[in-house]
Specification:
This protein is α/β, with parallel strands linked by helices. The protein folds into two domains: 12-313, ANL, N-terminal domain (Rossmann fold), CATH 3.40.50; 327-404, 2-Layer Sandwich (GMP Synthetase, Chain A, domain 3). The chain has helices at 12-17, 35-48, 64-74, 90-98, 129-132, 140-143, 157-169, 181-190, 200-209, 229-238, 269-273, 336-343, 379-392, and strands spanning 24-27, 32-34, 56-60, 80-84, 110-114, 124-128, 147-150, 172-175, 195-198, 219-223, 243-250, 254-259, 266-267, 279-282, 287-291, 304-313, 316-322, 327-329, 332-334, 349-359, 363-372, 401-404. A hairpin with a 2-residue loop joins strand 16 and strand 17. Helix 2 packs across helix 3 and helix 9 crosses helix 10.
């Protein structure tokens, strides 16, 4: 069930204080804390910083367990919390910390979260506990049955959503180190998690790895990238007992909506009728606009341009890709994600990244970096790839270059690295 948004005066200590205190809450490879343990540590931090109510607390570069205890301590105690992902370069973290947006006089603690910064310097977006938790399930009785794996940085919006879901429902959180994939999976399996949120890129990697099949997963959540039907079908076959949820969210807008019907895209009814308190619209360029109930307004009607292009097919809306990621081939727009979806249909391919390469005649060429399954790529596989693309794509969408690579990087946020690094 969904509760109404919390009162602005509510803080994380109040949330945890209302839960069964002996219930386990945070677990790492070396340490386990109950709810009572977290509350005690948070209160000790407050006692040691009596002036905290007037301070800005910058949380950067902390171990996940220390970070989460500090979140509980400072929410409702300090005026502002600045959450900076550990992957940010120190000079960028210092710059963001020194250039905070104006501080309006509000009763609740402000949470300042950094955007991904994929197209420039990250920006700080202001939230409160109320705006961050408005879409969470709050059922402590059911929450006690879940053990969430945390594979995101808790300072990123997606990671914070997992953390707050655990706090509001009293679910145990298994904390992992995002720097090492093998250690991450080992920790998840060793602790028998039954709920996990990750990007589609990470989920594809988990499926290929295979070890998560040992976990009794009951809840699978995806977000941050386009979710294609092939991946959804793979997850259903691998985890038949799990509920699969695709969350559409961003740091700027918060959680927009969730899709649970096992189909790619989302129902057109979300646009025509709204979804909960969230309203959607599609402009004449195919951009998806979202009006969340508790987020800063961008245009006069309160809508935010998400930057995602979509396409309506029948009673369904499908994501095409980011508008700023389009490849221009002789005036024709090519969405890398569409070409990648077609290429992933081939069983010989483990992973793929499509990008544009500048060309003086037609603007850009479509380039596909392919990680072959098993043996290294050869000319036979190259011909199969091009033949498959010609059958399923428009001529300008077919890759002009196919490069076989040993691996494709994943960004700290869990998304496919599209810079080519």
């Amino acid at each position: 069930m969904y509760a109404s948004p919390p009162d602005n005066s509510l803080n994380l200590l109040d949330v945890l204080g209302a839960l069964p205190q002996k219930r386990p809450l945070l677990h790492t490879g070396n340490e386990s804390l109950s709810i009572a343990d977290v509350v005690a540590r948070a209160l000790a931090l407050r006692a040691a910083h009596a002036d905290g109510g007037d301070n800005v607390r910058v949380l950067y570069g902390l171990a996940p367990l220390d970070l989460l205890v500090q979140l509980v301590a400072w929410d409702g105690f300090c005026r502002r919390l600045v959450l900076l992902p550990s992957s940010l370069a120190p000079h960028i973290a210092m710059q963001l910390s020194a250039e905070l947006p104006p501080n309006p006089d509000t009763a609740s603690t402000q949470w300042l979260l950094a955007t991904s910064g994929t197209t420039g310097l990250p920006k700080l977006i202001v939230h409160t506990l109320a705006s961050l938790s408005r879409s969470l399930k709050r059922d402590p009785q059911a929450g006690g049955n879940y053990r969430w794996g945390l594979v995101y940085d808790p300072c990123r919006f997606a990671g914070l959503q997992v953390v707050l879901q655990g706090f509001f429902s009293g679910s145990e959180l298994v904390l992992t180190s995002p720097e090492n994939f093998d250690e991450q999976v080992d920790t998840l399996v060793a602790n028998d998690i039954n709920a996990l949120s990750a990007t589609p890129t990470l989920w594809r990697k988990f499926v290929m790895d295979g070890r998560l099949s040992k976990c009794p997963l009951r809840q699978l959540t995806l977000g941050g990238e386009i979710v294609d039907q092939k991946l959804l079908d793979h997850l259903r076959r691998n985890f038949p007992a799990a509920r699969i949820t695709h969350i559409y969210a961003s740091t700027e807008a918060g959680v927009g909506f969730a899709v649970t019907d096992g189909r790619a895209g989302f129902p057109l009814a979300f646009v025509t009728e709204g979804i909960g308190c969230t309203k959607l619209r599609i402009d004449d360029r195919g951009h998806l606009w979202l009006r969340p109930p508790m987020s800063p307004t961008i245009d006069q009607e309160g809508y935010i341009d998400t930057g995602d292009r979509v396409e309506v097919r029948g009673d369904r809306v499908y994501f095409l890709g980011r508008y700023n990621g389009v490849i221009n081939v002789g005036g024709n727009k090519v969405h890398p994600e569409r070409v990648e979806e077609v290429l992933r249909e081939l069983p010989q391919i483990l992973e793929v990244r499509v990008s544009g390469k500048k060309n003086p005649l037609i603007g850009e060429l479509v380039v596909a970096d392919v990680v072959p399954r098993g043996a290294p790529g050869d000319e036979t596989l190259r011909r199969d790839i091009l033949s498959h693309c010609r059958r399923h794509l428009e001529p300008w969408q077919v890759p002009a270059m196919v490069r076989f690579v040993p691996q494709i990087g994943i960004l700290p946020a869990g998304k496919l690295n599209r810079t080519g690094a």
